[in-house]
């Protein structure tokens, strides 16, 4: 984003409200396991890391098959800032600007670092017993690793006695009975998972509630870590679809946001980063941007940071002597 009137924002107050979305750290860093440090193994890991990042940024596994990204996938180092080894893990840091540019050229949507938080109720079942995975338990580490790998801001329950009493297999299967204890975590979405080991493999049934919609599915994997990754990948795709909207043609939009201050301005710039927004002017406490996106996506992102829409979207067409493309104006305020 290229701010052109930032100095004018110094007159804004410093009072700010807490954000509803959560800023995901390490969005452009991928940690990829490697069998060795030989060049061939390294090159394969770099390509896998780029594929993971592409899915993480778009929410679409099919993004890696986009022909416009073939050259980048063939030579991922053109998008890499640095990489190094930590034991048997290759840690790759990608260049955000170059990567975003590649995705825009390919016509793919971009999911920024400000994302809805996900509360996960994960129940490991074994015979007639069930163990709720809680924050701080050793069994939580595979979930944290998988969530970071797939770009999800994860929240786990404390798994205290009250939560263990309500997190039963029946409640997780039906998606009911957890609303009361879930409220304390203030998450934007909730994922319930029942996992078990059977016949030498791991099975999971999951249910996701996000942005007023619900989806469910099942998956299997050879081990617990792979199962956690498969579930988080499925959840990431559903959440991207719910909060980003289905891919459709973009249009030129004018975005007006009232009630801004310095802290809110910084937060808004982060949220608008995927849209390549341009700040056009400041009018008192109102910021006016121009961007290319869809109305659905912008509304979803504004809701994540607690903005309220002020009036219905309106359209305006430029007049002679210069005929301008029709623009839709969206107005929000804190």
From TrEMBL:
<protein>
    <recommendedName>
        <fullName>DUF2066 domain-containing protein</fullName>
    </recommendedName>
</protein>
<feature type="signal peptide">
    <location>
        <begin position="1"/>
        <end position="21"/>
    </location>
</feature>
<keyword id="KW-0732">Signal</keyword>
<dbReference type="Pfam" id="PF09839">
    <property type="entry name" value="DUF2066"/>
</dbReference>
<dbReference type="InterPro" id="IPR018642">
    <property type="entry name" value="DUF2066"/>
</dbReference>
């Amino acid at each position: 984003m290229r701010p052109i009137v930032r100095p004018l924002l110094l007159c804004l107050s410093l009072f700010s409200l807490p954000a509803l979305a959560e800023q995901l750290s390490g969005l452009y860093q991928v940690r990829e396991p490697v069998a060795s440090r030989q060049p061939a193994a390294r090159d394969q890991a770099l390509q896998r890391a780029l594929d993971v990042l592409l899915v993480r940024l778009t929410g679409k596994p099919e993004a890696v098959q986009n022909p416009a990204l073939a050259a980048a996938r063939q030579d991922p180092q053109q998008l890499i800032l640095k990489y190094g080894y930590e034991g048997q893990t290759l840690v790759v840091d990608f260049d955000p600007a170059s990567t975003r540019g590649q995705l825009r050229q390919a016509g793919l949507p971009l999911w920024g670092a400000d994302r809805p938080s996900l509360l996960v109720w994960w129940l490991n079942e074994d015979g007639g017993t069930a163990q709720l995975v809680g924050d701080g338990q050793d069994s939580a580490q595979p979930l944290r690793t998988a969530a970071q790998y797939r770009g999800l801001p994860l929240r786990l329950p404390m798994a205290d006695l009250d939560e263990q009493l309500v997190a039963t297999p029946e409640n997780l299967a039906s998606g009911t009975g957890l609303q009361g204890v879930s409220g304390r975590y203030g998450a934007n979405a909730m994922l319930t998972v029942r996992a078990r080991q059977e016949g030498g493999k791991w099975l999971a049934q999951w249910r996701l509630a996000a942005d007023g919609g619900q989806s469910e599915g099942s998956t299997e994997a050879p081990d617990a870590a792979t199962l956690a990754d498969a579930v988080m990948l499925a959840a990431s795709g559903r959440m991207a679809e719910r909060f980003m909207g289905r891919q459709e043609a973009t249009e030129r939009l004018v975005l007006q946001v009232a009630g801004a201050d310095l802290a809110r301005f910084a937060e808004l710039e982060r949220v608008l980063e995927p849209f390549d927004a341009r700040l056009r002017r400041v009018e008192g406490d109102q910021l006016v941007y121009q961007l290319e996106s869809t109305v659905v996506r912008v509304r979803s992102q504004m809701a994540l940071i607690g903005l309220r829409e002020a009036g219905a979207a309106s359209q305006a067409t430029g007049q002679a002597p210069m005929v301008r493309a029709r623009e839709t104006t969206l107005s929000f305020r804190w």
